[in-house]
Design a protein that fits this description.
Layout: E1 2-6, H1 12-21, E2 25-29, H2 33-41, H3 51-56, E3 61-62, H4 65-71, E4 74-77, H5 103-115, E5 123-127, H6 135-144, E6 150-154, H7 164-169, E7 174-177, H8 181-191, E8 199-202, H9 204-234, H10 240-248, H11 271-284, H12 291-314, E9 319-322, H13 337-347, E10 352-355, H14 363-371, E11 381-384, E12 401-404, E13 416-419
Parallel strand pairs: 1-2, 1-4, 2-3, 4-5, 5-6, 7-8, 9-10, 9-11, 11-12, 12-13
Helix pairs in contact: 5-6, 9-10, 9-11, 9-12, 11-12, 12-13
Length: 427
């Protein structure tokens, strides 16, 4: 098939590369000069497994929306629906809630609708953007309702930044929200060329809700695991990894093992913002209990607890957080719980130095820069904010204290390692 993409950002481009890797011809539209530069230079500016290798040999072209319509059988729309920075989860939860911003998505649909104007241009348009329930019927349907050639299908993706291509090509399931049989039939035919994953068909509103609650459920798992971690840190002869590993065996009645480990709160471009958005929706619907708000409050309280732990051990030591990204082996800092921790510590009046091997200059270069100045870069207390494998061989100074919520930094006679979540008598 010929496949078009309206939007080739951090979601759209890796997915477009994935589609191309299955033998489809792909064309795309994106107004961003940064995206055009990535396509022209074939140099990805963010980390995505598999993506750079496929970009090196990609034949994807950026064209006008009119050309994308003319040259495509189906068109994916991965246009962002952003929240402001205050909704990313790196600062305290804002008091005022609001819906996502659908400005870009609506404009993209309007631009497409203009070009889909007769039987010859009849197209299946697949929206994959994250939206709250009711959005497509309220915000998108009115734009296209007078156009019988614009066939809409809602198909949200369950991917994670950094592994977008892999997740797209090997999904757990394919979710369709639709009220047009022809659009659904065409979309299913396409996906048969991509994956053998099971397909779940439902209403558009159900699909919208599945997408955002999928993310919030992951947040729930992480929040619970972190609560157990706190308990185990206080209870003698307990180890949160042992507890969670045992609970994971109850996969039929409890949960699968993914996200079933104490550490830091969740982050990325979806989870904090989706929780906050659903909190807004809960308030709008006047529900009896705002579960989503509680998830974010727990995440914030968890980070406060970690800040307390750091303060209790820092004494006169400086504070150094290792890791800025929201998950290991990526440079994406959106929604990072490490940055939230930094902000909370700075609110309390502490100076905090942060370093991440995937975000910043190499440690040797930074160390050399500070060694030549009067500044002291090395703090005597290190907190492992992101579980990067590089930190297992980090050059900690003698006498340092390392606080490790992941329990993977090796112990040493030269410094003290505090593995959060392991009761004192088990150390």
């Amino acid at each position: 098939m010929n496949v078009g993409f309206i939007g080739l950002g951090k979601l759209g481009l890796p997915c477009a590369l994935a589609v191309e890797s299955r033998g489809h011809k792909v064309v795309g539209y994106d107004p961003s000069e940064q995206v055009k530069d990535i396509i022209d230079t074939k140099k990805l500016q963010y980390q995505e497994i598999w993506a750079q290798d496929h970009l090196d040999k990609s034949k994807i072209e950026i064209k006008s929306i009119k050309e994308v319509v003319q040259e495509s059988d189906i068109i994916f729309v991965p246009i962002q629906t952003p929240h402001g920075d205050e909704f990313e989860g790196i600062t305290r939860i804002p008091k005022d809630r609001k819906d996502f911003d659908y400005t870009y998505l609506k404009q993209g649909i309007k631009d497409l609708e203009i070009e889909i104007w007769d039987e010859q241009c009849k197209k299946v348009v697949i929206i994959i953007s994250t939206v709250l329930p009711g959005t497509i019927r309220r915000e998108i349907k009115p734009i296209i309702e007078a156009n019988p050639y614009f066939k809409l299908c809602y198909n949200p993706f369950f991917i994670a930044m950094g592994t977008t291509m892999r997740d797209f090509l090997h999904p757990e399931f394919i979710l369709f929200g639709q009220d047009d049989d022809w659009a659904l039939k065409t979309a299913k035919k396409f996906y048969k060329t991509i994956t053998h994953a099971p397909i779940y068909e439902t209403t558009i509103e159900n699909a919208e809700l599945v997408k955002v609650t999928y993310n919030t459920f992951i947040s729930t798992k992480l929040s619970f695991a972190n609560t157990v971690m706190e308990m185990c840190h206080k209870l003698p002869n307990t180890n949160c990894d042992d507890v969670m590993n045992a609970l994971a065996l109850g996969s039929k009645r409890i949960l699968a093992e993914s996200y079933w480990s104490g550490g830091m709160g969740d982050g990325g471009g979806c989870h904090p913002r989706d929780n906050i958005a659903l909190s807004w929706l809960s308030q709008e619907l006047d529900l009896s209990h705002d579960w989503f708000d509680n998830i974010m409050k727990q995440r914030e309280n968890q980070t406060e607890w970690l800040a307390d732990l750091i303060e209790n051990h820092s004494k006169d030591r400086g504070i150094n957080i290792l890791g800025k990204s929201f998950k290991p082996e990526t440079n994406i800092t959106t929604g990072s719980p490490s940055i939230l921790l930094q902000n909370i510590l700075e609110e309390r009046g502490h100076g905090v130095f942060m370093w991440d091997p995937y975000v910043d200059e190499p440690w040797e270069k930074i160390k050399e820069m500070y060694d030549d100045s009067e500044n002291e870069i090395h703090s005597q207390l290190y907190f492992i904010g992101t579980k990067h494998p590089e930190f297992t061989s980090f050059p900690f100074e003698k006498g340092s204290i390392i606080i490790d919520p992941w329990r993977y930094i090796p112990e040493s006679e030269d410094y003290e390692v505090i593995h959060i979540g392991i009761g004192e008598s088990l150390k």
